[in-house]
Amino acid sequence: MKRVAEALGVSRSNLVEKARGKTPSRGPYMKAEDDALLPLIRGFVDERPTYGYRRIAALVNRKRAQQGLPPANRKRVHRIMQRQGLLLERHTARRQGRAHDGKIMVMRSNLRWCSDGLEFSCWNGDVVRMAFIIDAFDREIIAWTAVCGAGISGSDVRDMMLDAVEKRFGTVRAPTPIEHLSDNGSPYTAKETRDFAAALNLIPCFTPVRSPESNGMSEAFVKTFKRDYVRINTLPDAQTALRQIAGWIDDYNEIHPHSALRMRSPRSLSELRPSSQRVG
After folding, report:
1. Where is the Integrase catalytic domain (predicted)?
2. Is 128 in a helix, a strand, or coil?
3. Which residues of the chain are in CATH 3.30.420.10 domains?
4. For 51-87, what is each residue's pLDDT tens digit?
């Protein structure tokens, strides 16, 4: 038996157990600390039911870092969530591909801002329409506007542009030109809006027709906003929804883990901006 074990490169005890047919199954892999980690995981899952295990792991490790504890391995969080039935269902839908070679991501903040609009319905049938401006580097929602019972107007877009410049620079004109990418909606393409953008030192850029991927960063935020906020909150009417949007935006900027930012939140990258580009 010893020579056979040496030839196969296995232990003699393993061969003995196999020969006797008594090799027990070790069962599911577990660690003693898993039970202590489960309440923290379950708390985040209950609070944010649309998050997958990667974002849950990011929130768990932020909390453990605040407590002076070592980070939990992401695969360990996946294993615990799988055992407890807390994983999201696998996405199985297929989509038709469309070639796009445009570049949206930039290497630092305040080089390109992206803007788009969205709408959602409340339980009583009210429709809320919203527009926003997102930075193409740090993914922060810099400014937004929302209305009910009407569409987003050119005046709304211009007010939002001014708000974004004031929040980022504390002045009414950006110190360096910034590309402002949007679709071809009339509030963006109107002459008044283009002239106003130029006065703010913004360079209007427009996507090709029928090419949402050309503004993919905005499209991604729309998906995140509807999935992680609109879908899971109480929306009896438009007034209730409008009161909640500011909190949702703050939560996205301050807490939401972003895969492209190494699971950091958009606001956490603010320290990467030069001091000349920060307000306060």
Report:
1. 105-274
2. strand
3. 112-272
4. 999 999 999 999 999 999 999 999 999 999 998 889 9
